[in-house]
Amino acid sequence: MNRVQTGDWEIFQLADIEKLIPDDVLSIREFLHTPSLSCSLYHVPKGSKDMDSAHEEDELYLILKGRGRLRVEGDEQPVEPGTMMYVRASCDHAFFEVEESITALAFFGTAVHRGEHGA
Protein backbone atom coordinates (compact mmCIF):
# COMPACT_ATOMS: atom_id res chain seq x y z
CA MET A 1 0.00 0.00 0.00
CA ASN A 2 1.39 3.40 -1.01
CA ARG A 3 1.26 5.32 2.26
CA VAL A 4 3.00 8.60 3.07
CA GLN A 5 3.85 9.30 6.70
CA THR A 6 5.57 12.52 7.66
CA GLY A 7 5.77 13.73 11.24
CA ASP A 8 2.26 14.22 12.57
CA TRP A 9 0.20 13.23 9.53
CA GLU A 10 -0.33 10.41 7.04
CA ILE A 11 -1.71 10.20 3.50
CA PHE A 12 -3.56 7.13 2.22
CA GLN A 13 -4.74 6.33 -1.31
CA LEU A 14 -8.21 4.76 -1.34
CA ALA A 15 -7.45 2.84 -4.55
CA ASP A 16 -4.51 1.11 -2.83
CA ILE A 17 -6.64 0.10 0.16
CA GLU A 18 -9.45 -1.18 -2.10
CA LYS A 19 -6.98 -3.58 -3.77
CA LEU A 20 -6.52 -5.31 -0.40
CA ILE A 21 -10.24 -6.15 -0.05
CA PRO A 22 -11.57 -9.32 -1.76
CA ASP A 23 -14.76 -8.71 -3.78
CA ASP A 24 -16.58 -11.89 -2.80
CA VAL A 25 -16.34 -12.01 1.01
CA LEU A 26 -17.43 -9.85 3.91
CA SER A 27 -14.25 -8.07 4.96
CA ILE A 28 -12.84 -5.14 6.86
CA ARG A 29 -9.35 -3.69 6.46
CA GLU A 30 -8.09 -1.28 9.11
CA PHE A 31 -5.58 1.19 7.68
CA LEU A 32 -5.23 3.68 10.54
CA HIS A 33 -5.19 3.06 14.27
CA THR A 34 -4.46 5.69 16.94
CA PRO A 35 -5.62 5.94 20.56
CA SER A 36 -8.51 8.24 19.60
CA LEU A 37 -9.37 7.25 16.00
CA SER A 38 -9.27 4.25 13.72
CA CYS A 39 -10.28 3.99 10.07
CA SER A 40 -11.21 0.92 8.05
CA LEU A 41 -12.47 0.02 4.61
CA TYR A 42 -15.50 -2.24 4.93
CA HIS A 43 -16.92 -4.48 2.18
CA VAL A 44 -20.29 -6.29 2.23
CA PRO A 45 -20.87 -8.40 -0.93
CA LYS A 46 -24.18 -8.39 -2.78
CA GLY A 47 -26.72 -10.72 -1.21
CA SER A 48 -24.87 -11.05 2.08
CA LYS A 49 -25.65 -9.71 5.53
CA ASP A 50 -23.17 -8.73 8.18
CA MET A 51 -23.58 -9.80 11.79
CA ASP A 52 -25.41 -7.53 14.23
CA SER A 53 -22.72 -5.90 16.28
CA ALA A 54 -22.05 -3.10 18.72
CA HIS A 55 -18.74 -1.34 19.34
CA GLU A 56 -17.22 0.48 22.28
CA GLU A 57 -16.48 3.48 20.04
CA ASP A 58 -18.71 5.88 18.15
CA GLU A 59 -18.73 5.05 14.44
CA LEU A 60 -19.26 7.00 11.23
CA TYR A 61 -19.84 5.20 7.91
CA LEU A 62 -19.43 6.82 4.50
CA ILE A 63 -20.85 4.67 1.70
CA LEU A 64 -18.54 4.80 -1.33
CA LYS A 65 -20.22 2.14 -3.50
CA GLY A 66 -23.28 -0.08 -3.44
CA ARG A 67 -26.84 -0.13 -2.15
CA GLY A 68 -28.59 -1.83 0.72
CA ARG A 69 -30.05 -1.13 4.13
CA LEU A 70 -28.61 -0.46 7.58
CA ARG A 71 -30.44 -1.45 10.75
CA VAL A 72 -29.54 0.40 13.95
CA GLU A 73 -31.31 -0.70 17.14
CA GLY A 74 -34.33 -1.85 15.09
CA ASP A 75 -34.58 1.29 12.91
CA GLU A 76 -33.87 0.67 9.20
CA GLN A 77 -32.59 3.11 6.58
CA PRO A 78 -31.55 2.71 2.92
CA VAL A 79 -27.90 3.40 2.06
CA GLU A 80 -26.29 4.35 -1.24
CA PRO A 81 -23.12 6.13 -2.40
CA GLY A 82 -22.70 9.38 -0.49
CA THR A 83 -24.77 8.29 2.52
CA MET A 84 -23.12 9.05 5.87
CA MET A 85 -24.42 7.39 9.03
CA TYR A 86 -23.36 8.01 12.62
CA VAL A 87 -23.84 5.08 15.03
CA ARG A 88 -23.42 5.71 18.74
CA ALA A 89 -21.19 3.40 20.77
CA SER A 90 -22.90 0.23 22.04
CA CYS A 91 -25.78 0.35 19.48
CA ASP A 92 -26.44 -2.91 17.62
CA HIS A 93 -26.25 -2.39 13.86
CA ALA A 94 -25.94 -4.38 10.63
CA PHE A 95 -26.09 -4.00 6.86
CA PHE A 96 -28.68 -6.24 5.15
CA GLU A 97 -30.68 -6.50 1.88
CA VAL A 98 -27.46 -5.70 0.01
CA GLU A 99 -28.63 -5.13 -3.59
CA GLU A 100 -25.20 -4.00 -4.86
CA SER A 101 -21.96 -4.81 -3.02
CA ILE A 102 -21.30 -2.12 -0.41
CA THR A 103 -17.90 -0.54 0.13
CA ALA A 104 -17.75 1.94 3.00
CA LEU A 105 -15.21 3.88 4.99
CA ALA A 106 -15.74 3.25 8.70
CA PHE A 107 -14.34 5.74 11.21
CA PHE A 108 -14.21 4.71 14.88
CA GLY A 109 -13.46 7.27 17.55
CA THR A 110 -13.97 8.31 21.10
CA ALA A 111 -16.56 11.03 21.64
CA VAL A 112 -15.41 14.56 22.46
CA HIS A 113 -17.35 15.85 25.45
CA ARG A 114 -19.12 19.21 25.23
CA GLY A 115 -16.80 22.03 26.10
CA GLU A 116 -13.72 20.33 24.65
CA HIS A 117 -12.16 21.57 21.41
CA GLY A 118 -14.81 24.31 21.05
CA ALA A 119 -17.71 21.84 20.96
Automatic annotation (TrEMBL):
InterPro entries for the chain: Cupin_2, RmlC-like_jellyroll, RmlC_Cupin_sf
Listed Gene3D superfamilies: Jelly Rolls
Residues spanning the membrane: none
Annotated Cupin type-2 domain residues: 41-98
A Pfam short name: Cupin_2
Superkingdom, taxonomy of origin: Bacteria
UniProt name for this protein: Cupin domain-containing protein
